[in-house]
Design goal:
This protein is of the alpha/beta class and 452 residues long. The chain contains 17 helices and 13 strands.
Amino acid sequence: MTYYRRQIDNVLLQWKNSSKHKPLLLRGARQVGKSSSIRHLGEQFEFYVEINLERQKQIQSVFKGDLDIKKIVAEISAITQIPVIEGRTLLFFDEIQGCQEAISALRFFWEDLPGLHVIAAGSLLEFALNEIASFGVGRISSVFMYPMSFDEFLLAQGYDSLCEAKRQANVAEPLSEVLHTRLVELFRTFIMVGGMPEAVVTWIDTKEYLQCQNIHNEIVTTYEDDFGKYRHKASPMLIRATLRSVAHQIGSKFVYSRVGQDYRSAVVKEALHWLVLAGLVTPVFSTAGNGLPLGAEANTGVAKYLYIDSGLLLSILNMGLGNIGGLTENILLSSAADLVNKGSITEMIAGLEIMKCLPPTHRPELFYWQREAKGSAAEIDYLIAKDMQILPVEVKAGTQGGMKSLHYYMEQKHIPTAIRTSLENFGRIERGTSVIDICPLYALSSLFPGSK
């Protein structure tokens, strides 16, 4: 099968080439492409061993009893008939959540065979890690992976030169109108297709949205089926109801009571916790935004939530609201300004694009700002830390008006620079000493040049 380049490839290659490569956990939701990326990395090694601990249950026995790493490696080599040699072999444990002893053993690979490249991944791995009291602190590294970004979506379709032109553009040298219009069209497609690799491959092969929606429906069903595996943690029905409520409350402060009258806030909060661990939702916490770090003044009791992927979101909305033809028509046919103004989906996608550009070695932390004074509510969609300063990011459409909250925040907090992201071309708005740079939604990765 064709492998499509991912941002994580460079991170994994750096890990391979590092003289101190601790065992690595590649973490992320099911079907975001973790196994494919690891197999691609395996091509850089002389030998590659992949063990699926859920499918090859008999191999779990090598981790029983004393965790003698050299003995475990020798047995794996004998079973697979592939040499497992430090510096020459990549040893990949897939679905490692199926064997807690294997998870516990990872730390000892670093102590006993520090030259061996060991990597692990698994669906719902976070649930298994949550049950291990002490987990390899200082001996195991983690990298987080997400669905494809818009840049990856472009590269998968062969738009390398268009992607490069986008990366080179800025407020001083915006894109030509032809390139800008083309990118807006592709971004509309990205909203519909999303970044789940199977859906992207289906789009490349068929160019049919309905085929992609079938894939989305299958993935959503798979996620919901997973909930039954953890019924001792929370009711699968509650987790399903909470996930669907997140989809319906996109762009708004999450209200626990909207999940269902029969559910107390405490149990809904617990369900959200498991959904965050599973990688299906990401919180955007309210913060006072007076300084860095933004988390120091965050109110973790007040949050908006991002759903993992726009394509999957549309699938859930279709299940819950019936035919969403009007919404999809708006995405594909409305003016760029109307698309941003009418849908909170674009606000969510902006957050997802920002999240995918953050360092993959840490679980993402996203924040927004709100002022709830009587008769004068104000809100900034995202606050990010850049160059040791706060950078407000507001999702807007028109060049006039609609930025009272942004101007108010900048004046109150003495912030000189902000970003308005929209489906406009690159540009700049100056007001006194304040500068608001316009960054197209399709180019949010340009705010994080180190992420490429």
